[in-house]
């Protein structure tokens, strides 16, 4: 990087997020030291008034700019194009529909002084309202998320790394369904010798979709992503179920329908069903046993 490079590059993958991006930009504008950083909005082909919104913030965020990330649809495409366009070797990633907490930039940059790959904390109550109870996502994190084989990985909307990690691990995978791509990235980073560290002071307020149909689609795709991840890495501690065991598993899930648990419990059950359905569907499409 050149001597005039910003202290860090905040990359925001974005698609039709005009309704929420302003909140995120306001939170970034309030960050200590943000004047020495840049904010890269990686536009994945938005059809709303994204450019007009960003232009409203250019005076308050001097390093704010839009980069074209429309060559293909997907959050990984937008992340990759944003990282490649970034002028700093310190990359911080957040999402357009969440809100970073006070001190988020400072906490991640401090961590990157000693660690190459880090992830922050998150909570779901502030922006999600009742929807915070509809998924298995924790109300508040107490560490990095953990996948098969004990792989600890940062949630995609609160990740930071030095550019060397991106170059060594390779870009975010663009052939995944929308879900689990950040786990794949962390897996390849670990294979390259980079283990993610947790930064509890870097808090993101995470927004869970309040539209049930969109939430179920998201959970279905997350299940597809986990099936793709399993097919790619075949972790030894994630043995695929036999046809009989899979049927038994699904019957048990169906039997747990919370008939008397209230609407929130039923929505949570539906998101679990959608996730399992996504796993089964993608496993069949890939021709591999379902985990």
Per-chain topology:
Blueprint lengths: L8 E6 L3 H12 L8 E6 L6 H8 L6 E5 L6 H11 L4 E5 L4 E2 L3 H8 L5 E7 L1 H4 L16 E2 L5 E2 L4 E5 H7 L11 H11 L5 E9 L6 H22 L9 H13 L7 H24 L5
Parallel strand pairs: 1-2, 1-4, 2-3, 6-10
Antiparallel strand pairs: 4-9, 5-10, 6-9, 7-8
Helix pairs in contact: 1-2, 6-7, 8-10
Report what the structure shows.
- This protein has 291 residues and is of the alpha/beta class.
- The protein has two domains: 9-205, Spore Coat Polysaccharide Biosynthesis Protein SpsA, Chain A (Alpha-Beta Complex); 212-286.
- It is 41% helix and 17% strand.
- The chain has ten helices and ten strands.
- The chain has an eight-stranded mixed beta sheet.
- Strand 2, helix 2 and strand 3 (64-68) form a beta-alpha-beta unit.
- The longest helix is centred in the last third of the chain and has 24 residues, at 263-286.
- The chain is globular, with a radius of gyration of 19 Å.
- The relative contact order is 0.13.
Q: What number of domains?
A: 2
Q: Uncertain regions: pLDDT < 50 for 5+ in a row?
A: none
The H-level CATH homologous superfamily of the largest domain, spelled out, is Spore Coat Polysaccharide Biosynthesis Protein SpsA, Chain A
The spatial strand order of the largest sheet comes to 3-2-1-4-9-6-10-5
């Amino acid at each position: 990087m050149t001597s005039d490079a910003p202290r860090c590059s905040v990359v925001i993958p974005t698609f039709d997020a005009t309704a929420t991006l302003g909140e995120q930009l306001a939170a970034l504008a309030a960050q200590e030291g943000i004047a020495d950083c840049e904010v890269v909005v990686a536009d994945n082909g938005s059809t709303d008034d994204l450019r007009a919104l960003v232009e409203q913030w250019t005076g308050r965020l001097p390093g704010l700019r839009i980069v074209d990330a429309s060559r293909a649809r997907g959050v990984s495409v937008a992340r990759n194009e944003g990282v490649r366009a970034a002028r700093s070797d310190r990359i911080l990633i957040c999402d357009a529909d969440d809100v970073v907490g006070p001190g988020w930039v400072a906490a991640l940059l401090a961590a990157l002084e000693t660690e190459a790959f880090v992830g922050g904390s998150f909570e779901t109550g502030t922006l999600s309202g009742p929807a915070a109870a509809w998924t298995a996502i924790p109300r508040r994190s107490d560490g990095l998320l953990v996948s098969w084989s004990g792989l600890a990985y940062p949630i995609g909307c609160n990740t930071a790394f030095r550019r060397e990690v991106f170059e060594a691990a390779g870009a975010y995978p663009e052939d995944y369904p929308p879900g689990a791509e950040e786990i794949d990235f962390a897996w390849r980073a670990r294979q390259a010798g980079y283990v993610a560290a947790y930064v509890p002071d870097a808090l993101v307020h995470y927004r869970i979709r309040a539209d049930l149909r969109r939430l179920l689609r998201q959970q279905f795709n997350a299940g597809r992503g986990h099936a793709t991840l399993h097919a790619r890495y075949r972790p030894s501690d994630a043995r695929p179920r036999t046809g009989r065991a899979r049927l038994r598993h699904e019957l048990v899930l169906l039997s747990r329908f919370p008939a008397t648990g209230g609407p929130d419990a039923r929505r949570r059950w539906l998101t679990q069903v959608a996730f399992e359905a996504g796993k089964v569907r993608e496993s069949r499409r890939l021709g591999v046993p379902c985990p």
